[in-house]
User: Fold this.
Amino acid sequence: MRNREFVGQHELMVMLAVLRLGREAYGVPIAAEIAAKTGREMLQGSVYATLERLEGKGLVASRLGEATAQRGGRAKRYFKLTAEGVRQVREAQRALEALWVGVPQAKGTKS
Amino acid sequence: MILRQPPRQATWLLERLGGISDLDPLLGDLAEQFAQGRSGLWYWWQTLGVLGLELVRMLRRHGRSFAAAVLAGCALTRLWMLGSSYAFQPLYAHLPQVSAHPWSAAALLRVAGMQLNVISNAVLTFATVWLVIRVHRAHQRAVLMVRVIVPTALQTVYTLAEGFWAIHPERFADMDRRTRNVTVLALVQSVLVAIIYHAQLVGALPRARPEWVLLDALDIASIGYLGYLLWRPRAVRRSGNAQRPPLLPALLRAGESR
Assistant:
């Protein structure tokens, strides 16, 4: 079996949010998307730390966007998944679906 | 339309201590959300989150070497102080007798010896800075700041000046012009203070003169200004010296590339 590094839960959530947002994927909507879909509010810094890590792994690429007065003249950084990133997300999905098959009900057991 | 400005102190902290390599987009995101109605408390929570994440990340990656660097610096300082207190102790003995003849050869020799003591302390600072930043190469600026918090005010000036010297490969000549001037001024003033102090010890000058207040004020001001120069946000430092490559950004780049 090939030795692979799986993406963590945080990383997977951020990558999925980036995929969902498409061209509009920068820090604010990424965090908002995760909060809306999972009910978990991620720290903005945590989103960036995760994205920086993913970029280091070559799963995400970024470009600088426009600066606005509302942002104090600071530019946005837009993110998108690389081909390898998309492949990793699909692989994670396949692995999770395969693990779910045959699980009757996730009710927990009584001791 | 007047936009709400996020808490300055929080932004100040983020600009200096936030560990993410490109902070501008994050600061922009926080400012955008604050302008849209998020509270000051929320902004501070986000700031503390970034700082906490950075601390955890740094300790995870370099915790041992960071602790080792600070411990090595403290141990070297302690050893040196122990040795020099024995070596230079005779210079400070029986001073009242020397004070009776402040311009004698013996008194002048003592002043010279005391100056040597000061120089040896400066060498000590240089040696500890050199040792500390070589034990922990990943966060030279952070370790240097830990080192400058520990010593006394005069040693702080030496530490900063020699820290610049020790860290930067292009050395003193390529310092940011203002940093260089203030460093030179602070060093000259420190030497003057030391000479006056020792002249007072052997009785060549009367003690407790009002000039001390001015010298102390200058000392504190120069340390404060050097601290400010060191801690200016990255963007400001980049635009500080257009002609030649300024010291601090190069220092930051060197730290980040490791």
